[in-house]
Amino acid sequence: MDTGNNNYIKTILKGNFLPYGQNFPGNVPPTGRFSNGKLVPDFLASALGIKDKVPPFLDPNLSNEELVSGVCFASAGSGWDDLTTLMTRVITADKQIDMFKDYIKRVKGIVGDEKNGMKIVNDALVVISAGTNDFGYNFYGVPTRRFQYTVDRYQDFLLLRLQSFVKALYELGCRRMLIAGLPPMGCLPLQMTAKFQNPLDRKCLEDQNSESKAYNNKLSNLINQLQTLLPHGKIVYADIYSPLLDMIQNPKKYGNSTKLPSTILIFGDSTMDTGNNNYINTILKGNHPPYGQNFTGHIPTGRFSDGKLVPDFIASTLQIKEAVPPFMQPQ
């Protein structure tokens, strides 16, 4: 959600360098968005006919027009849990509320009076999305909170913080809020990579996905309660879990028709040579025991290994062939 606020604070979590922003409109330098292009706030603003992109509130060059039509207070790496931001040194949820208070003062100053300033706040669409970093950093990654809470209790802890955040926004005049749930946490590249050392073994972690769904169910119920408690507002739950999981499981539906390779070509040294040295004048040969003792047929093939090499495993995983022959092997 952060469209660039982290550019203006002291944190290592910045997206103002390549490859970030390489597809952003206008061929401009990376904007601080953790994306190759636009983010959800930009697409929403564009779809609603407000503006093409949402600038970060901390941008010192914001025009009055930009301020009045909307800005972003989000900070990449933030969350509901203050421990999350303590680790990442980014903007806490409470600090984002303080920034919003400053925003209200500035908007009132621009439009010239209290009533019109508050009308802008009342009519604004407020988009809220957090929680992913809390689980990713504090529960699944560095298990700080896992020593203190069960996953069920940690979900409740985060939702209590979210509830306080929403109430604070309501008291400040926000009346239209869209609150996003968690994505399928177990399918995030970071989570899968941390679990599986071999990239070829990576798959979604069903336990984390189930926990994301449980959190989202609680969030949906909480939003119904908040709607009753805050009767002058309209608070809506945004399900991002289902569409993202569908994109992951059914990529062809969304135009991703990537075809697996049908050919594999290998270059390199002894770690990749499947037997070419057998056919040249060199003392570096692997065609004798103990090489090959665990290879199919238990015979040395010229591989400097007791069995298969990386090219063989890759070819097998891609379902091309079980073993990659050396190019110099006579037909």
From TrEMBL:
SUPFAM superfamilies: SGNH hydrolase
Domain of life (superkingdom): Eukaryota
Chain ranges passing through the membrane: none
InterPro entries named in the record: GDSL, GDSL_lipolytic_enzyme, SGNH_hydro_sf, SGNH_plant_lipase-like
Entry's Gene Ontology molecular function annotations: hydrolase activity, acting on ester bonds
Similarity comment text for this entry: Belongs to the 'GDSL' lipolytic enzyme family.
Designated name of the protein: Uncharacterized protein
Species name: Acer negundo (Box elder)
